[in-house]
């Protein structure tokens, strides 16, 4: 079985809102409701867990009480929140996704799951459009990575549940912190297949992102996404 974990336990300070950004309105519905709907519409997802802040648990339950979604209280960091979600799932495949990436489609979720089953681990990402630079401690440019092999990582990030759970447990024991789950998997297990993501699959971080997301959703058939098919 494939288990989805939607991480929605952040504060979102850059959104300049008084509440968790995933509960802000987007085309008449909370951001998180768009995200969850994509997972519910993907036929390969067998169970779904949402990890949210303790102060948001009741609000989250009220939103999804009829969908059979499990609500879990998050931790102090994203990494801790993901681990709490991993401890609640029963599927052999874990699909980890940012709650603030509300423009994800069932098709992309399904594609990353297929790639994980074939390669052991997979993540969505897009090739960098801009030229990137690396700098030294004093802020001087010291290198230019090849743009052809440089990607912006997104979510979903999909793994064999047992392996990503072990990676989190080892990181906890060794006091290792990573900015995403791929970072932990790379450290302890190895290669991850990159799946072509979408430039529309943005993480809603600022008020400007919300405006862009509204325009994208309004341009999609049915208000959510044109392709409602999973796998």
Explain the overall architecture.
With 231 residues, the chain is α/β, with parallel strands linked by helices. Helix 3 packs across helix 5 and helix 5 packs across helix 6. Strands 5-4-1-6-10-7-11 form a 7-stranded mixed sheet, with helices on both faces. A two-stranded antiparallel sheet has the order 2-3. The chain has a two-stranded antiparallel ribbon with strand order 8-9. It has a single domain, classed as Spore Coat Polysaccharide Biosynthesis Protein SpsA, Chain A. Helices cover 32% and strands 24% of the residues. It contains 7 helices and 11 strands. The radius of gyration is 17 Å and the shape is globular. The longest helix has 14 residues.
